[in-house]
Every structure is written in structure tokens, then in C-alpha cells.
Structure to design on (130 residues):
């Protein structure tokens, strides 16, 4: 009997020093940089790139399909840049970029690009100067 995860597990890249907690699902063609921390129950779908030194809190959900269910036709790439931190229970919508050293507050729904060093939180997330 063949391993059902054989192809799945071989098609993503995870950098040195990255820690991945229990019950994390990582899709095909996902790239995770070095020294990241991915907390429990996170879902990282295909088309997500996470650069180095990023913190992803528990229960974060990345979404890639702009018009579900498109089965790949309308998937969009998502980028989380170096040093960003995403709080617990956030939803990251398809096609957004979260900037370098940006912070996303717990429970936020990210629907727009977040610039470098910015702090966003809320549902839908908005920029704050806190």
C-alpha cells in the first residue's frame, strides 16, 4: 500500500531553524523561510510564501482561492515578508502581501496589502498607529 502523503509532503520547502507545532497543515508549493515559528492548528494553503524570521500564531488560516471552488483556476499568491508577526486566529485572504516587520493583531481578517512596519488589526483589518 502506498503512502497517501508521499507526494504531498515532498512539494514544499521549509528553511533551517523553523519550528512547526502540532496539527499544522502545509499545502503543496508553499515556501517557508528560516527561523520561523508556525503555531498549532495553522493552515497554510498552496501559493503561500513566508520569508525568514516570521511568527505565525495558532489557528491562522491562509486562503488562496478568490472564487471558490475554482480548483486552482483563481488561486492567488500570498506573501508574508521577513520579520512579520501574525496573531492567533487570523484569516489571510488570497493575494495579499504582509510587509517586512509588519504586525497583524489576533483575530484579524486581512483583505488588503499591509506595508512594511505597519500594525493592522480588526475585522476587516485596518491600519493603526498604536
Amino acid at each position: 500500500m502506498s503512502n497517501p502523503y508521499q507526494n504531498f509532503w515532498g512539494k514544499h520547502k521549509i528553511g533551517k531553524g523553523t519550528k512547526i507545532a502540532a496539527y499544522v497543515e502545509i499545502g503543496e508549493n508553499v515556501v517557508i523561510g528560516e527561523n520561523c515559528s508556525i503555531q498549532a492548528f495553522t493552515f497554510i494553503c498552496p501559493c503561500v510564501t513566508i520569508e525568514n524570521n516570521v511568527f505565525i500564531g495558532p489557528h491562522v488560516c491562509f486562503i488562496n482561492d478568490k472564487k471558490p471552488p475554482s480548483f486552482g483556476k483563481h488561486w492567488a499568491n500570498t506573501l508574508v515578508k521577513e520579520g512579520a508577526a501574525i496573531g492567533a486566529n487570523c484569516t489571510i485572504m488570497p493575494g495579499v502581501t504582509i510587509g517586512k516587520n509588519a504586525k497583524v493583531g489576533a483575530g484579524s481578517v486581512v483583505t488588503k496589502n499591509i506595508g512594511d512596519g505597519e500594525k493592522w488589526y480588526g475585522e476587516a483589518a485596518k491600519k493603526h498607529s498604536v
